[in-house]
Every structure is written in structure tokens, then in C-alpha cells.
Amino acid sequence: MSQPLDRRLHAFRADLADAKLQGRVEAQRFTEGEPAMVSAPVAGLRPAADLLRGIDTQLLFGEPVRVFDRRDGWAWVQADEDGYVGYLPDDQLAEVTPPTHWITVPRTFVYPQAELRQVPLQTLSMGSRVTVTGEAETRGTRYLLLATGGAIIARHSLPIGECPTVDYVAIAAEFLATPYLWGGRSGFGIDCSGLVQLAMMMAGVKAPRDSDMQAGFGTPVDRAELQRGDLVFWKGHVGIMEDGETLLHANGHTMTVARENLDAAIARIGWLYQQPTGFRRPG
């Protein structure tokens, strides 16, 4: 008997489903959907069209999605980056403008003009995608001018596809002290698996979104072999080894991204989540 499809990664309802699932699920109608991109700095993706429902994950400014349905101010979408399916407010979407650059620092401001003394229009997270139409310089600081209006500090971005480093652990460490947020995937708030995914994405590695998905990523290793970049899993949690002894993770204990001795973390976490379920080496 085949396993039921994961609703997080497959768009299907009784009334409507992704055309790619025809023959695998029953639905009144199938659609290929339409492309769109996220127009809010951060958009929470929910399992239902209800602002009172907690978020499953977040999508970042400029990230592409496929829209299957729009109704009552909500859009039912699937993210291109990791295939995650859910609902977000329809006004947080716009027509696709091919991005040219992405943000490579944890957070950056969008100014009305190429002038850092002005009040910012918005703040963007690492991983956000923007379309650059020009450049300007003010008092020696170079800015990139955006198709959506405003300007960002030029050195806070790189052309799409260029990574600030291939060391995803170094990228994850840039988020130290960032608040923990369940479902978070941005520089404003992030959860354990969001930290892994976002840091890897910025290092050129495509990773699944949730910790149970990431638990099959890479190859298994023994605890005695742990090294920088390895992942440690508990049921419902994941952390990144900064070296053979130090865990870097977004956690609900400190409510931040923090460093912690692995042995101390195992002892502390054990009463609630028992022992680690596995150790994996990405790649």
C-alpha cells in the first residue's frame, strides 16, 4: 500500500489539486497554477486560510511561488524553493519580476533613496530576492536601486547564484542571538530547521524545510566522528555542529540562536526529547 502524500509538500484538496498529482489523488478539479512572487518582507505560510493558525514556515521577499487558488483574500500556494504548500494573504503576492540579486546579510534596510539618513521603507532578511535597475553613490557608500522602489546598501547583496561563502556553518553563526520563532525562516526570527535550511541555501545547498525531512539528508555518521557542519537530530529538533564539541542551534530554551556544548545540550534536552535520533553529514 502506498504511503499517503505529505500535505506539506503536495497541493491537494477535495475540490482542487496540483495537475502534477492527477492520477495520484482525487479532486474535483486540477490546475497547473500560476507563477507569482512574495511581495512582503516575510510572509507566513499557514496550513489553513486563518490568521489565528500558527505558521508552518515563512517565505521571503522575492521568492517565487505557484498559486493554485485565490479566495476571500487568501492564496493557496507552493513555494518553488522547497515545495512547501500553504496559505498566505493574497496581498502579499505580486507578479513575477525576475530577480537579479539576493540579500546576503542577516538583515538590511531598503531606503527611499540612496541615502542612509532617510527613514527606511522596509527591512529585508537574508535570502530575499530583489531586482536591481541601477546604482548610486552617496558620500562614498554605494547603493543598488530597486525595481520596486528604494535603494539598498550594495555590499549587503550579491548577484543571484553567487554565495557569500560555501561554509554554511559560518552563515548560520551570523544569526547568533536572533530570536527563536516557531516556523521562522528569516533574520527576524528563526527556528531550528529554518536555520539549517536558510544557511545552506545561502551556501548553495538545497535542503528540505522541516527537521523530519532533514533527518534523511546526507549520510549518517557516528557521534564520535562529529565534525564542523554535521547535523544532530532529536525528535522535532536539529542543530549544527560548529566543531566536534559545540552545537549551534535555534532553540526554545534560550529562545535564540545560541552555541551550546553538545554533551550539555543532550543532558538538558533529554528529559523532554530523550536522546538524539541521529547524526548526519550533509553532502
What does this entry look like structurally?
With 283 residues, the protein is mainly beta. The chain folds into 3 domains: 78 residues, SH3 type barrels (Roll); 59 residues, SH3 type barrels (Roll); 114 residues, endopeptidase domain like (from Nostoc punctiforme) (endopeptidase fold (from Nostoc punctiforme), Alpha-Beta Complex), CATH 3.90.1720.10. The radius of gyration is 20 Å and the shape is globular. The chain starts with 16 loop residues before the first strand and ends with a strand. 39% of the residues are buried.
Could you write a compact summary of the structure shown?
With 283 residues, this protein is mainly beta. It is built from four helices and 25 strands.
Reported CATH architecture of the largest domain: Alpha-Beta Complex
How much is the average pLDDT?
A: 97
Main beta sheet: strand number and arrangement? 6 strands, antiparallel
According to CATH, the fold-level topology of the largest domain is endopeptidase fold (from Nostoc punctiforme)
Distance between the ends: 31 Å
* Largest sheet, spatial ordering of strands: 20-25-21-22-23-24
Give start-end ranges of low-pLDDT stretches. none
| Helix share, percent | 10-25%
- Backbone shape: globular
